[in-house]
Amino acid sequence: MLDRRSQRYQTAVTLATLLVGILMAYAAISIPSDAGYAGVGPNFLPWVVSVALLLCSGFMFYEIRTGGFREMEEPSSGDAHPFWLGFAWMSAGMLGSAALIDTVGFVFSCTLCFVFAARGLREAEGETLRGWKPWVIDLVSGLLISVPVFWVFGKFLAIKLPGLTQGGWI
Question: Please, are residues 114 and 138 in contact by the beta-carbon 8 Å criterion?
């Protein structure tokens, strides 16, 4: 049987999943449903994700009520506790990218997100990060990923991503 502490943690995770599903469904209401490519509107994916989260939270509640998350493996590698500094780096990268995409364009905001996420992952692995070399490696790697993505979306898929210049490639 499940001890009280584990049951509280599992209930908290389940409630958080339920809350995210409800918030996504609420936000999906405000997205127009005008059919776009292949008859699917822009609100289709948010609805799919919110319904999936609501279903998953229902299954999770069932699991808690009938003995907890069974067959949950113990962590095989790494620390059993979260690495909050890595989480902070990754969160800062995603939030910074979202905040700056209209200002600096897709390429630079995507690169920023990559650099911060790589920094968080490197720190989580315990790498010693001294000097400018890891920053430059991550910056170049981020650019080498984001520039082709920007180009493919613009040229092949005809999807206009936010750019730094009005009609330019970046």
Answer: yes
